[in-house]
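#onboarding

Welcome to the new folks! Below is a worked example of what a typical request in this channel looks like: someone posts a single protein sequence, and someone else replies with the predicted structure as tokens. Don't worry about understanding the tokens yet, we'll cover that in week two.

Example request:
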Amino acid sequence: MKHILLSAFILLCGVTLYSQSSFILSYPMGLPLGDLHDYSSKTSFRGISMEFLGHAKPGVAVGLETGWNVFYEKKNKEPYKQGTTTITGTQYRYTNAVPILVESKWYPTEEKKKANPYVGLGVGTLFASRSTDFGLYRITNEAWQFCVRPEVGVLFSIEPGLKAMLGAKYYGAFNTDDLDGQSFLSINVGFVFSSL
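Example response:
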């Protein structure tokens, strides 16, 4: 897993060297939905998101996104079911979600305004690792899931080459044989660093 993330990061950095480009670094707050919410209902305040974009034409950018969200919840004496087995006890539930997406963003207004809205769409994969700890024992399920990620947001100009951003992303992951879709909504705040 570490090798995949490192390779994706190096590839994303390479995009910025050969085009007018942007690097977005943001802090995501994740709200679990669907099966992920059933497993761990608490909001995630652990994570990071990175995006590398090349500007294809005025108002349109394409690139890659990766990141990491950690969902965690402690459950006291809750039953845990897997197949035909049920275990009851204090559980520490963790879900690590790592998206790797190809994306496009559309900026409908002029760059010179102080606040510029945008919309985006990403398609790719979401690596989900779910771990349940019972004392000395750990039950782990991992899956690569197909993921579609629409988003909306606003960019705020600070100075040439630097903007603040506020956005919302929905990571819609699809079921696999190993794990149901681990979908979540992410509220992101961060900075956009652009080449001039």
